[in-house]
Design a protein that fits this description.
Blueprint: H1 3-15, H2 20-25, E1 29-34, E2 36-38, H3 41-44, E3 53-55, H4 56-69, E4 71-72, H5 75-78, E5 90-97, H6 101-113, E6 117-121, H7 133-142, H8 147-159, H9 174-188, H10 193-201, H11 214-222, E7 226-230, H12 243-260, E8 267-269, H13 277-285, E9 290-292, E10 306-309, E11 312-313, H14 316-320, H15 322-333
Parallel strand pairs: 1-5, 1-11, 2-3, 4-5, 5-6, 6-7, 8-9, 9-10
Helix pairs in contact: 1-15, 4-6, 7-8, 7-9, 7-10, 12-13
Length: 335
């Protein structure tokens, strides 16, 4: 760990020692944002995967650490802050998108350690072969499907004036190649959702679907540990949709969850964290008064309406070294 990270981790750990913890975090709630739990720790640590992926062993390490320092509560209970500071700070886990590994790798550990979680589904993907573009494009360019598939996708991207980094086809260390790929994938985020989906659909078919199926959703919901909410339907960035498309996107995700879930959460979760006044108005028309953003910070009050609730992102690194996560929570205290 670099010196700067050591200092952050040490400060984070110090903030969770009594009596500092109660003074800093008393009567607050933290919403943690995760995406994926994957079995390979080394793969999860690469820069193009690390923001979204947490290794399975590191995830279990995170759960044990959270139980030591926090009350792990369902998301809905987090908002029932009682105005006293005599209890431990609360934390709620959220997962975005609806990745299949949430059921295969995350859920068994959540059940083993009895930690509740909320999973926000991009509903068009659930129970389908539709691929998440970041994974499909990223792993094809990484070379997971071979050099021929990588070059075929690279040629298509060049036609769109999107030239992949030269490092991807060169004999470079994995860390350097992965950093270049991470930067390129960030550039792609602003392409139209249908264009990104078309690129993803042209990539090689993965060994297993990217997303959960509805049976997995039902089994997790039946456990009483996991609840589900909407994360868009197509995962389009809501602020870039026209009014009718925005209305249809929000309504479709709500109606799909109503059909498939016994008790869907009345809380929206913005794809990519993007929202504005027009998005807020569309959510209100569909009955939502709470929504999750990607803005860092802690929950301090019992909100009746908050369409920009803060969350703290969890990466593979911060799950493996929870002192770094504690430092991020400490920054949330100061915001």
């Amino acid at each position: 760990m670099r010196l700067k990270q050591l200092i952050k981790a040490s400060s984070g750990r110090l903030s969770l020692t009594p009596p500092l913890k109660q003074g800093l975090f008393g009567n607050t709630g933290s919403i943690l944002m995760l995406h994926r739990v994957v079995p390979d720790e080394t793969a999860a640590a690469l820069p193009h995967r690390e923001p979204l992926c947490v290794g399975k062993s590191s995830f279990e390490n995170l759960l044990l650490w959270l139980k030591q320092h926090f009350d792990c509560v369902p998301l809905a209970e987090l908002f029932a802050l009682n105005g006293t500071s005599d209890r431990r700070p609360r934390v709620a886990l959220t997962f975005d998108d609806g990745w299949r590994d949430n059921a295969v790798h995350a859920f068994p550990l959540l059940r083993q350690h009895q930690v509740p979680a909320s999973i926000f589904l991009s509903t068009d993907f659930i129970g389908s072969a539709r691929r998440f573009w970041w994974e499909a494009i990223g792993e094809t360019l990484w070379g997971s499907f071979g050099a021929e598939a990588r070059e075929r996708l690279a040629a298509t991207l060049r036609q769109l004036q999107l030239v992949p980094p030269a490092e991807l086809a060169a004999e470079q260390p994995d860390e350097q190649r992965s950093k270049a790929l991470a930067g390129f994938l960030q550039r792609l985020k602003r392409l139209p959702a249908d264009q990104l989906q078309a690129l993803a659909d042209g990539c090689p078919e993965p060994a297993a679907p990217h997303a959960l199926d509805w049976q997995q959703v039902a089994e997790m919901e039946a456990s009483g540990l996991v609840r589900f909410g909407p994360h868009g339907a197509s995962h389009a960035i809501l602020t870039e949709l026209d009014e009718s498309s925005l209305e249809a996107e929000v309504q479709r995700s709500r109606e799909t969850l109503d059909r498939h879930c016994a008790a869907p959460l009345p809380i929206y979760c913005y794809p990519n964290g993007d929202h504005d006044a027009h998005v807020h108005a569309a959510l209100r028309r569909q009955g939502y008064r709470l929504a999750l953003s990607t803005r860092p910070g802690l929950v301090r009050n019992r909100p009746t309406e908050d369409l920009a609730l803060p969350r703290i992102g969890v990466s593979h690194q911060s799950a493996r070294q929870p002192g770094l996560l504690a430092w991020r929570l400490l920054q949330g205290v100061r915001q």
